[in-house]
């Protein structure tokens, strides 16, 4: 009898150990997932929705609830084709859906873009509750040069498949923490919260909207790959990423020479966070767009210093705007003055702290233009 109990206990120990080290999770070869990427250092919270089908060599990722759709169609001849569809506003048109195409090349073929991490090399850490679900926690730590990156993933399994090897896992949360041992500080961090996950993909998700004709990207080529497939650089940070290419291009263009490796690393980090901020803001479909400029390698606190203003001690005798006078006026929600040709290009006020005079000349120029034009057409 005692022997029998011991045998049962031994079996129980083996069974619980078998359960304590689950097999490496996988997400299947096709899935549809929704989530939010947060990049706290760039002040970004970007919702996305993704479709992935390995057999069809196709993926699609939409950002900001479909403001921007990107397609990676690896089966299209000859080396795959990437598309980006988004509304564009220019000097001549407002919110017109545009499709931009990037053809893969022998060197850089267009392939499917996963929106879930590749878990090869991850180690099982522990079981813990996350967002009310009991999760497996998996982790991988990599060291490349001065960069130590810790990737942590929280997954669950459906009730039915709790212990069976073959069933795809459901991703819940993913965190990347990048620590720079040279600078002694965290240089990067991103979090992804997955909201919906399903192994079913509607093949129609990979068809471009009907009647869409696609042209190449305007402007110089360095940025195109990032615009066509933002996810690639957003959460798959590798030493040879597109953002590194962009930084090299920036250094050439603005003739940057940094004093040492430390400053170089610092500038590169500032640049990449600014780059992500610019691209993410542009994907959100706001009434304005951002671009990189000579200040893109500065940190937020350096930029704040440049905007510094000395307050005068005496009152400036400015009067409040007489809004009462205009109470009955019927105003449109918004007005894009560029469409009226009344806006001159953005000026660079450099170190001149005269925002008030730049604002004034801008307004006077626009008003004068409209006045002259109506005088001509009357
Ligand atoms: C992390 O993953 C890579 C491969 O993806 C592997 O070479 C490495 O050993 C892993 N690191 C740890 C600490 O397990
Ligand atoms: C891509 O390839 C197609 C077919 O070969 C061609 O018609 C199109 O002009 C190319 N587009 C770009 C942007 O290179």
Strand content: 25-35%
Q: What small molecules does the structure contain?
A: 2-acetamido-2-deoxy-beta-D-glucopyranose
Number of domains: 3
- Principal-axes geometry comes out as globular
Query: In CATH, what is the homologous superfamily of the largest domain?
Result: Lipoprotein localisation LolA/LolB/LppX
Write the layout of secondary structure elements.
Elements: H1 2-20, E1 30-39, E2 44-53, E3 58-63, E4 68-73, E5 81-88, E6 96-103, E7 123-130, E8 133-144, E9 147-156, E10 170-180, E11 185-198, E12 214-215, H2 224-228, H3 230-234, H4 242-253, H5 261-283, H6 300-306, H7 355-377
Parallel strand pairs: 6-12
Antiparallel strand pairs: 1-2, 1-11, 2-3, 3-4, 4-5, 5-6, 7-8, 8-9, 9-10, 10-11
This protein binds 2-acetamido-2-deoxy-beta-D-glucopyranose (2 copies).
One 2-acetamido-2-deoxy-beta-D-glucopyranose is lined by residues 101, 103, 216.
Summarize the entry for a quick read.
The protein is α+β, with helices and mostly antiparallel strands and 378 residues long. It contains seven helices and twelve strands. It has three domains: 23-233, Clam (outer membrane lipoprotein receptor (LolB), chain A), CATH 2.50.20; 242-306, Helix Hairpins, CATH 1.10.287; 341-378.
